[in-house]
Design a protein that fits this description.
This protein is α+β, with helices and mostly antiparallel strands. It has a single domain, classed as Creatinase/methionine aminopeptidase superfamily (Creatine Amidinohydrolase), CATH 3.90.230.10. It has four helices and 15 strands. A five-stranded antiparallel beta sheet has the order 8-7-9-14-15. The radius of gyration is 17 Å and the shape is globular. The two termini are 30 Å apart.
């Protein structure tokens, strides 16, 4: 069931989203060679609690941390650890959720660690741009498939693989709500987009094959061919005009 939010509820989601944006902005400034993913996680939890919010991910289906930290060929759901230390040339995807006054904000970005290769930089740029191309289609009168098709067309034009196993999703009082919004699909298909829908759009783009697998920790998802993956996400609200990005400063 798709839950439409009132304007006042969307304002509360904007508050939650702004907290997530603060976390990701500050962590992006702290990412550097020699920093462990456990340090990033501790900083994230400190920021969220300082804003009187709750780390949404911590304890969710047993997940042990505040953020997910996925390095290089890791796509999503990487578990922070003091043993995972960033090095020059890595890329790290950080996904964060915060619950504020009962409402969830959810966003992600992929950050270069020091100097990265031109190939990795292009992957990040294409993935981030794909997110905003998808957001542009999030309008009353369109369908969810219009978002999906726009993302897929842009990503595949650059020769990258669009992950099938993980999708964007509705978000609100719960982190995962209806509808699911894949990053691939066909125009004029899927659910009609209506004012008050709130969706976390999150292109996950692989440098090679779209195939993925889950590691033995039962959480970390990696590319099947070992090539790099990038991930960008915003929570948005559909309005009678332009889509509203809730997870930005």
């Amino acid at each position: 069931m798709i839950i439409l939010k009132s304007d006042s509820e969307i304002k509360l989601m904007r508050d939650a989203g702004r907290i997530v944006a603060v976390v990701l902005t500050e962590l992006a400034q702290k990412v550097a060679p020699g920093v462990s993913t456990a340090q990033l996680d501790a900083w994230a939890e400190e920021i969220i609690k300082k804003h009187n919010a709750i780390p949404t991910f911590k304890g969710y289906n047993g997940f042990p941390a505040t953020i997910t930290t996925s390095i290089n060929e890791e796509l999503v759901h990487g578990i922070p650890s003091p043993k995972r230390v960033l090095k020059e040339g890595d890329i790290i995807s950080i996904d964060c959720g915060a619950t504020y006054k009962g409402w969830v904000g959810d966003a992600a970005l992929t950050i270069p660690v020091g100097q990265i290769s031109p190939e990795a930089q292009k992957l990040l740029e294409v993935t981030e741009r794909a997110l905003y191309i998808g957001i542009e289609q999030a309008r009353v009168g369109n369908r969810s498939g219009d978002i999906s098709a726009a993302i897929q067309a842009y990503v595949e034009k650059h020769g990258y693989g669009v992950v099938r196993n993980y999708t964007g999703h509705g978000v609100g009082r719960n982190m995962h709500e209806d509808p699911q919004v894949p990053n691939y699909g066909r125009k004029n298909r899927g659910v009609p987009l209506k004012k008050g829908m709130t969706i976390a759009l999150e292109p996950m783009v692989n440098m090679g094959s779209p195939r993925t697998r889950v590691l033995d920790d039962k959480w970390t998802v990696v590319t099947d061919d070992g090539k790099l993956s990038a991930h960008f996400e915003h929570t948005i609200a559909i309005t009678n005009g332009d889509p509203l990005i809730l997870t930005q400063l």
